[in-house]
Amino acid sequence: MPEPVLSVRELIVEIPTRHAVLRPVDRVSMDIQPGEILGVVGESGAGKSMTGNAVIGLLDRPAHIAGGEIWLRDLRIDTLGREAMRKVRGKQIGMVFQDPLTSLNPLLPIGEQIEETILEHLPVSRDEAKARALAALEEVGIPAAKDRMGAYPHQFSGGMRQRVVIALALCAEPALVIADEPTTALDVSVQAQIIALLKKLCRERGTAVMLVTHDMGVIAEAADRVAVMYAGRLAEIGPVREVLTNPAHPYAAGLMGSTPLASLGKRRLNQIPGTMPRLGSLPDGCAFHPRCPHAQDRCRANPAPPRDGRAACWFPLGAEAVA
Amino acid sequence: MNALVRVAGLSRIFDVSAPWLNRLLERKPKAMLHAVSDVSFDVVEKSVYALVGESGSGKSTIGKMVVGLLSPSDGAIEIGGVDLNQTTDKDALERTRTDIQMIFQDPYASLNPRWRVRDIIEEPVVARGGEANGLAESLLEQVGLSAADAGKFPHEFSGGQRQRICIARALASEPKLIVCDEPTSALDVSVQAQVLNLMSDLRDEFGLTYLFITHDLTVVQHMADTVGVLYLGRLVEEAPRDALFEAPKHPYTRMLFDAAPKLDGFGREVDPPKGEIPDPINPPAGCAFHPRCPLAVDRCAVERPEMREVGAHRVACHLAK
Fold first, then answer.
1. How close A228 gets to chain B, by Cα (Å)?
2. Angle B26-A153-A166 from CA coordinates, rounded to 5°
3. Which of A76, A130, A200, A243 has the lowest CB atom count within 10 Å?
4. What pTM, to 2 d.p., does this model score?
5. Which of B57, B105, B222 to mutate to test the interface with A (most CBs of A within 10 A)?
6. What is the mean pLDDT of residues A209-222?
7. A-B interface: how many C-beta pairs under 8 angstroms?
8. Bridge-partner residues for B213, per DSSP?
9. How does the average pLDDT of chain A come out, rounded?
10. Cα separations (Å) of B268 from A105, A170, A287, B271?
11. Could you report the predicted ipTM of this complex, rounded to two decimals?
């Protein structure tokens, strides 16, 4: 096995509040190999964005990393200081967020924004940076890139803006890209373009990608492996085909079953009863047990640890109960 | 089969010009945005008609015109035989208006945060001078909440629960038609499943007709009986659900289906669609889709295709067979 680009080990993120300390991310571990796309899925509040933000060191106070380690190749990044982290961000980790308008500076032409990023992170001259910025824009498919270097973000459509953001994320040739719901704000046809682009560029360069989304279809098409999160914990992680077609965790199974595509031709959709618990009132044991059709006493007492990259469940589906 | 809603030649134009002083100084012409152009369709009673399209296709504008939140620039909308914009019969107008309700996309924005749930749900009845004894409580139970929730405020509920409150409010006036504008787009999949199931159940129970507006093809495939596909303000294809999903006739519909992510599309390398939706202020001549269409011939750039019947479909494409 090659050395993973990103290795998250037993990561814990905590938010102290007046009443209690909340744990939006609770002992999450995951590795991403070079050139691999790891999908992170879950519903709102499952902790998927919070995990991504912890990796890039952009947790909003008072949220902070309270335990675990984050390794970028052989550099431990969760303990880096602000200035050192700022150098890592952009150079070694690129970011693509949901809303391209908020990740671009509205007052600077896009060409200048990309140049600035390149100059900050790579030892090149201004002319060289300009040439690279142009090449980056051409690569992401901005038509007439040369003429549009001087254009401002508001002069682009949503899809084109997201392309600019991808160019910005990749221009310093990072080893890892964190894409947090990169296509949620876009139309289907544009979404297909952006996903194809992200896939192509990362394959070509061997960039590792953490793709955070709630859209199972996007995960199926883009990801190599998928991590399913529930209430801040990892429910299941594994190869995308295996997890999606043959989920072992009852929550992953319920999530797959409730997408309209999974119950085609049926009068009713399969639904998971109840709602995800709030962080302040997590049940004891496995966080999913009150909604789980297979829950037993053991689930109510202790949460199952994620085992061997498979489901964090005492009684995984499709397997005989493990003693 | 009775049509509950008849939409004929519906158009809506928005004036999006710069302020007159800017126009004068910068010599800019007036800018008109044709949000909806010449759209006609019927919604059969007790069926679900879905309008799909990407942003800017005019689907929400049509929904707003059907409920009467916007007036059409041209064309007619008849609901149960009454044209709300033409009729002078006050009684018929009142009666028809109570027959129409709407559910909006964002359950955080469509409930008044200062009102109790009881007042919110009873408003459609109370506003017309009706009696609402215990109505909110019974409706809350019908949508899967508890009667005790009537005294609470909207902020005490989650997104899915709020959407249930919106549905209860829509049911209060015993409507025949509910226009649902992206009712589950703001919800997580597992909550979406709950809300869609609830909507199906209520439809059976009350004999409701839904006009469903959404961009999500999977939801359409699950809910709709008939589907209309919009592109740049025009209806490009309309067909019964199964016929449409099995064999889409319009190249745009085909492109939309191909681009939608598939659950079993592991590692699928899609040939992504070309281009983006053009500027609706200056739409392309001829068929609006021709610059992106893989099949386009010279005729498409000049002559706009009329809606015509091809099998069970209605298609606006010169080449559809």
1. 13
2. 160
3. A76
4. 0.85
5. B222
6. 90
7. 122
8. B51, B181
9. 87
10. 34, 23, 34, 9
11. 0.79
